[in-house]
Amino acid sequence: MKLFLRCSLYLLSVLSLTALLAVALALQTAPAVPQPPAISAADVAKARSFLRRNDPRLGPAGELRSVQVSEAELALLLNYLSSRHPQLAARLSLQDGHALARASLALGGPFWLNASARLVQNGGLPRIEDLRLGRLPLPDWLTALLRERTLTRVAAFEEARLLRQMIKHVALEHGRVQLAYEWHADSYRRMLDSLLPAADQARLRAYSDRLVQLASKQPSPVSVVELLTPLFQLAVERTAAGQDAAAENRAVLLSLAAYASGQGLGRLVPAARGWPQPRPLEVQLYGRPDFPLHLLISAVLAAEGGGPLADAVGIYKEQADVRSGSGFSFNDIAADRAGSRLGLLAVQRPQALQRRLAAGLSEAELLPDVSDLPEYLSAAEFRQQYGGPEAPAYRAMMARIEALLDDKPLLP
């Protein structure tokens, strides 16, 4: 009996020391992958160009197609994911037949979990080899088990099941990934449905129905604040009934942005095409229909993807305006920045923002008067007066915009 106890204690001590050693080897005090730079307007332009070139809806349904993604385009995607999840950073280096993947996850305090692996071309999805957590190598049997467990969990999500059905082959080459996939007639609808779970679609339906009521009583044009206040009053009621405040706020902003754009929710939520539709009204701010779009779209982007992404989209839009003829407008940038702040407050201080907007506000409280900011600048005028986003004159104008917004914050 004593021998059994001694052996048990010895085994327990060995297992405890092994576990401590494994943790010590796996955890590190610095990330192996640094945080990427903020998403720029040029990054947004590249992403838009890639999506236009590879829009799967353009070809006939049912046929096998292929798309090539460069290492730089993959880096842009991983950069975007990092902007959504700032505690995570990842890198992928492509070689012939395999790829080297690295990721760093902040665990809090001084500790980081750094992982690396080799992704080997395997017909369908790549096979994982040489998986390491920090300095701790994992045996192949454990790597295979983790892969299967991960795929099983991921398969619980509709978008993951859809992707696994679509993707037929992944080829890893030096500098690019070649993806063969099959696009079906219902793939776009299923993809959109998967992006918004049933609970989120129900939220959107609640605010869409309220917009139907509001639009039936409002003249056209209508100020955005005349719609924003009653929608947030509904958000306060639904939050008090047990709904998640941040999710309610995101639904308000998305519903109103889709309505103000004239596109409607049906382009994002296929089910919404069968809902009662609000009477079309021109939504304005300071008598302009473009200001609500800048503000609301930036708010949605900030609430969903973080302020830097929303800012980059706003700057890209302005630079596109320079090329298309309407010119660069700093007051539009101010509306973008006000929207970014609104979107971040919607998820960072959701109930405080609900109470503030439900109580009613003026247009000047939503967006300070920016009528004296330069606008409609041609490409030549913009270059001559402001140079570009990194030039001192441009930075000074952006600082002025931030000071205007700081002077009249939505929340103290």
Give me the secondary-structure topology.
Layout: H1 2-26, E1 27-28, H2 41-53, E2 64-70, H3 71-84, E3 88-95, E4 98-108, E5 111-120, E6 127-133, E7 136-137, H4 140-154, H5 158-166, E8 167-173, E9 176-182, H6 187-195, H7 198-215, E10 222-223, H8 224-240, H9 245-261, E11 283-284, H10 290-305, H11 307-324, H12 330-348, H13 350-358, H14 363-366, H15 379-386, H16 392-407
Parallel strand pairs: 10-11
Antiparallel strand pairs: 1-5, 2-9, 3-4, 4-5, 5-6, 6-7, 8-9
Average predicted confidence as pLDDT: 83
Q: First CA to last CA: what distance?
A: 69 Å
Oligomer classification = single chain
Number of strands: 11
Percent helix range: 55-70%
Structural class: alpha+beta
Number of continuous helical runs:
16
Q: How can the largest sheet be summarized?
A: 6 strands, antiparallel
Shape: globular
Give a written overview of the molecule:
The protein is α+β, with helices and mostly antiparallel strands. The radius of gyration is 25 Å and the shape is globular. The longest helix has 25 residues. Strands 1, 3, 4, 5, 6 and 7 form a 6-stranded antiparallel β-sheet that branches. Helix 9 runs antiparallel to helix 10. A hairpin with a 2-residue loop joins strand 8 and strand 9. The chain has 2 domains: 159 residues, no CATH class; 212 residues, no CATH class. Helices cover 55% and strands 16% of the residues.
